[in-house]
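=== Structure Prediction Worksheet ===
Name of assembly: unnamed complex
Input type: mixed (protein and possibly other molecules)
Chain count: two
Listed entries:
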Amino acid sequence: MIRIDSVTKRYPDGTVAVDRLSLEIPDRSITVLVGPSGCGKTTTLRMINRMVEPSEGTILLDGADIQQQPVNTLRRSMGYVIQNAGLFQHRTILDNIATVPRLLGWGKEKSRARARELMERVGLDGSLAKRYPYQLSGGQQQRVGVARALAADPPVLLMDEPFSAVDPVVRKGLQDELLRIQDELGKTIVFVTHDIDEAVKLGTMVAVMRTGGHLAQFAPPAELLSHPADAFVEDFLGADRGIRRLSFFPSAGLRLQTAPIVAVDATAEQIAAHDTADAPYLLVTDPNGRPLGWSEPRDLTAGQIETGRLLPYGRPFMAGTDSLRAALDCAVLSPTGWAVAVDAEGRATGVVSQQAIGEAIRGAHAERRTDDTAQKVAP
Amino acid sequence: MNVLNYIGAFFDDSAHWQGYDGIPTRFAEHLQYTLTALGIAAAVGLPIGLLTGHTGRGGNALAMIATAARALPSFGLMVLLFILLGLGMTPVMVPLVVLAIPPILVTTYEAMRSVDPAPVDAARGMGMAETQILFRVELPMALPLILSGLRSAAIQIVSTATIAAYVSFGGLGRYIIDGLYQRDYEKVVGGATLVAGLALATLAVFWLLGRLAVSPGVRRRV
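=== Predicted Assembly ===
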């Protein structure tokens, strides 16, 4: 465990970057430091590997003061990932990744074998091994950055805004990849970002920091969204924190209706039978069960359903695996106000109305409140 | 007679290819002056440039010294030292070294300063020692620029080393100065052509050095 104990960083000109910060970073989980620029989050991170030395206070790594260790030994025991990756332009991808093992005195072959293993681990094609950094895209470079940090299998990983310089699509891919790697490796990760969405998505615990190097709140993301400690945190979370909080509610509890679903080759009787369903629209699927679009029942004629005239169904959500936020998003995007649930193969498994989603949300909130009360009662 | 005829006549004369005043001897002397001066200048300029560039300190002082050194007239300096010290290699070497240090020093400093700070930060964060950062990260990335500084220094020495002949030393300048005294323009032009040829050869050597020493990952960027 990394324990930051009333640490202050004061620069010679009097600026205080971090002010009496105390934080316990749990093992084998992702702790995100988030806040506006100038809140001291990067300074805090850099004090953990002594890139910045604290003016006051101590940082303990597994109970030992990090000041007592030779600085380069300490740094080699922690992976370090920075914005734009910071790859060595003069070295191949393989040699970039092998940097820390080589520093630790591993042989060339062993280091390279390890580097190859890591390329696979972070989702890089082996054919890139002999390339140079400039030949890679920003996202690929950042993967190399992560692989390089993991090369010597350090227990701790420090990541300083690693994904903020890539476009949103690539960033989402990198975030998902990080969560997958973390599932496999279980590192103690300290992750700095200014993006609250990234913090909420990745963090097991989120530390919100405020300008002047103060800790505003330290909590799991769901709690942060439901109970912001003060007006600053609430403001920083943004206007739609209620919606974002829905990311933490599973869609598994939604009551899906299958009645308003007809196949494109349905007979007149089948259409008539489904019309009795308690829904103003019917979802038409292809013969394999994949959704095609919505239609009012009276516009459907057996054998002559024109798929081109159907109303679009927006983006379906994965029943069970996606959150209530995804389900609500589907319902809002759909012109009919109904969300379509699909299984892993993309087959429609049911439909659900905005109203039903609303009820599920209320139900989930009520359940959380009971949980909260229970937690408070517990010693 | 035009210049090309002079050149042809100079190189066709078999007398110019042998003896203590032959082309091979003069060429070897010129090369020796150049390499010695370049070696000394690099031995002074490179370490200072690398160190100041790595730490980022002393840049202003460096620029001032370099400007002052550039303002010194090589020929005047040589004559002055010749008068003070008498016949010897020092009056020749000092102006050449003084001439070569500024481009090496300033370019090396600038090359080190212009290295992308991100990989350097990453290197430090991964636990590289300062000397490792300097030699394994900064130097390889700064190398193309550093080589260009050495190259301009070398070219300047090659052309300026001709003045050695003025204080009775050898080198390719011999032909130019003797030719002028003897009104032997064939010799003057021949000597000048050899100097120009050596300068071009220097360019070629540095090009080759760049191909061999600079990583393909860095070469593309210059």
